[in-house]
Design brief:
The strands form two sheets. The protein has a six-stranded mixed sheet with strand order 3-2-1-4-6-5, with helices on both faces. The chain has a two-stranded antiparallel sheet with strand order 7-8. The chain is elongated, with a radius of gyration of 20 Å. It folds into two domains: 3-169, P-loop containing nucleotide triphosphate hydrolases (Rossmann fold, 3-Layer(aba) Sandwich), CATH 3.40.50; 199-266, Orthogonal Bundle (Conserved Hypothetical Protein Ylqf, Chain: A, domain 2), CATH 1.10.1580. α2 links the parallel β1 (32-38) and β2 (58-64). The chain is of the alpha/beta class. Helices cover 39% and strands 14% of the residues. The chain has ten helices and eight strands. The protein binds guanosine-5',3'-tetraphosphate. Belongs to the TRAFAC class YlqF/YawG GTPase family. MTG1 subfamily. Its main location: cytoplasm.
């Protein structure tokens, strides 16, 4: 295990460009755009192209998976988005919390300035931020499949909710070029990029570097290790050792340790963590 340079990740498969075009065709029907980002990386997971969809629409931004994010930093992000964007509503959201769903419905209805009988809302965002889960929370039952792998294409579909909303479910889309290499790395951490196009060991090493700097206590508790003044490769070894991830005697399995670390972050097992700050 050596310290690596940031891996430059780009991923914009053809089906996303096609989905982007299809969304644009449907836009004239839409009253409210509900944009979903991941509260742990709210800026990196915000597709800049979605601004093209929202300029003449009501716009709600959900910082979803707020239950997995650092609450203090989340509040800073809410303040930042309020100050730096003209988005009408910005909410911390946990798609499994019914109170959040009730609040979201209230906010959507508040934006119904033309008093329409049925508001049409589009749910959009990059892969794996929780769009399907948000939709399921709004329709009150499992209608759309959760946990699809990025890269698996999914069509657009209209769904109705008990609160008289029509929801347009859209596939997760990224944008053609990440100007900042950190964005590609962040999106790989979130599981929003197909995992065959990057080296897991590299992106796990970068994640570990951040966690050691900002969330050392959480690492020590989860993996039952002590960080003391260990360097990064030594921390990696300590995790592998603590979890018994060995290739053979005395040799650690870096691939399995990388996958473990990335999955533990993705699923919130390390703790409430936010990986970028305003
Ligand atoms: P997508 O449509 O945007 O692609 O995302 P999806 O709803 O499929 O959700 C992706 C994963 O995130 C799912 O986990 C889902 O349960 C989880 N998730 C969504 N919203 C929230 C939330 O507010 N809080 C928490 N804690 N988790 C949320 P999964 O089925 O385990 O999929 P995966 O992570 O193995 O891909």
């Amino acid at each position: 295990m050596t310290e690596e340079k940031i891996e430059y990740i780009q991923w914009y498969p053809g089906h996303m460009a096609k989905a982007n075009r299809e969304i644009k065709e449907k836009l004239k029907l839409i009253d409210v755009v509900i944009e979903v980002v991941d509260a742990r990386l709210p800026l990196s997971s915000k597709n800049p192209e979605i601004n093209q969809y929202t300029w003449n629409k009501q716009h709600i931004l959900l910082l979803n998976k707020a239950d997995l994010a650092d609450p203090d930093v989340s509040q800073d992000w809410i303040d930042w988005f309020k100050k730096n964007t003209d988005i009408q509503e910005i909410m911390l959201y946990d798609a499994f919390d019914r109170r959040h769903k009730t609040e979201l419905v209230k906010q959507i209805q508040r934006l119904n300035v033309k008093n329409k009988a049925q508001l049409k809302c589009m749910i959009c965002g990059i892969p794996n931020v929780g769009k399907s889960t948000v939709i399921n929370s709004l329709i009150g039952k499992k209608k759309t499949q959760v946990g699809n792998k990025p890269g698996v294409t999914k069509g657009q579909q209209w769904l109705s909710t008990p609160d008289k909303l029509m929801l347009l479910d859209t596939p997760g889309i990224l944008w053609p070029k990440f100007e900042d290499p950190l964005v590609g790395l962040h999106l790989a951490w979130l599981g929003s990029i197909k995992d065959t196009i990057y080296e897991k060991e590299n992106i796990a090493a970068d994640l570990l570097k951040y966690l050691v700097a900002y969330y050392p206590d959480e690492l020590e508790v989860l993996y039952k290790i002590t960080l003391d003044d260990k360097n990064l490769p030594e921390v990696f070894d300590a995790i592998a050792k603590s979890r018994g991830l060995l290739l053979r005697a005395g040799e650690y399995d870096y691939t399995r340790t990388s996958v473990l670390l990335l999955n533990d972050f993705k699923n919130g097992r390390i703790g409430r963590i936010t990986l970028e700050r305003p």
